[in-house]
Amino acid sequence: MELLVAVAIAAILALSMGAIVSRALEARAEAQARNTLNREAQFALERMLAAVRAGRLLLPLPENPSTGHSEAVRDVLAVSLDPTLDRDGDGFADANNDRDFFDADGDTVKDPGERERVNEDPGRDNNKDGCPGICGVDDDGDGLVDEGSSRDDDEDGLDDEDPRDASDNDGDGAVDEDTDGDTNADGQPGVAGVDDDEDGATDEGNSDDDDEDGATDEDWLDVVVYRLDGDALVERSPNLGAADGSDYSERVIAAGVTLFQVERLPRAPGERATRVDITLELTDAEARVVNLQTRVRSGGGP
Length: 302
Description:
By secondary structure, this protein is an alpha+beta fold. The chain contains one helix and nine strands. The protein has one helix at 2-54, and strands at 57-59, 73-74, 76-80, 223-229, 232-238, 248-254, 257-264, 275-283, 289-297. A five-stranded antiparallel sheet has the order 1-3-4-5-6, with helices on one face. A four-stranded antiparallel sheet has the order 2-7-8-9, with helices on one face. The longest helix is centred in the first third of the chain and has 53 residues, at 2-54. The chain is elongated, with a radius of gyration of 26 Å.
């Protein structure tokens, strides 16, 4: 009889321990799944934060007071490529399409400390991708993609109407977003009356030669884009040695995206920095949700 009691007790204990172990394993699996989802969201967010901090914010555009839709709150993010990024280690920034620099000693060799010139001579199609604005993207948030001329960099129906002068010439809320081949529209190579390339000559060449190096429109704006493709967040980056702005690759950096929102914040009076709020939400097949939000300052540009 005592043996039967002992066996029964042992069986009960075994069942209890089994249930405890099972619950512990389930809790561990749940924690691992949530951690995995969080890491995936954090990875994608960090990619975007690094890009914004290093580049000039292109999209979202500021709010346009003359439209009935939002330009500043979007599900797309576009910035210029980090002007210091050198993925192939050749000594030149990937965004330096014409590989030019200020040759202080005149030996035609880029020496340490000699500053590169990046994005200094774009053409009428600022990013040289053959599309209005950015290829495949609704730049101005009006529901239409790539409408108009390739010279219309902000897809507002006008070409080259906002030269580089730190002013909002067309009254759309954005500054210097749609320049001509002569980016500052002064009718001279580079800046009128200035020896832009420090070669001893002033205003030599074509008015579209913004850096006075003898070539025109040879250093376009390289663009990094984050956009949705279904529930996937896609990162678009220029290829190494890109021939033009249409030479890029895309890869998925997050799946299961249920919310991707980027808001360009209005500047306070006297403020020079451009800031954006980014929200990224991922949901997995078991309905686990991770929602990350952050604010970041853009690295350059108006």
